[in-house]
Amino acid sequence: MSRDWRRPLTVLHTEPGTEVNLVGDRFLRSTHIVFDRESTERIRSGYACAKCLEPFEQAWPEKCPVCGAPIRARQLEYFTKEYAGFEKLGSQFALDRDDIGTVDQ
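RESULT FIELD:
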């Protein structure tokens, strides 16, 4: 990994999730987070924690040094469940199209 491994993951979009969990004596709603491709790849390849988003200098540590999540044993399973799929953000049209702004007659 390059020397900028400490760079935080890039979040493109967040919104409230549908799950509610009891944490201690409080109910907390989950959050749906959309990352850019590079950040998603860092999580998938073990260079960042899928739970707390902490970046790692070396891939696949035994545990996350911040939240204690079992990275080596469980992160790929968690990633497959939570991060699978793509989110389309923004316009459905390419910005470099020649015909934008014209009306067919």
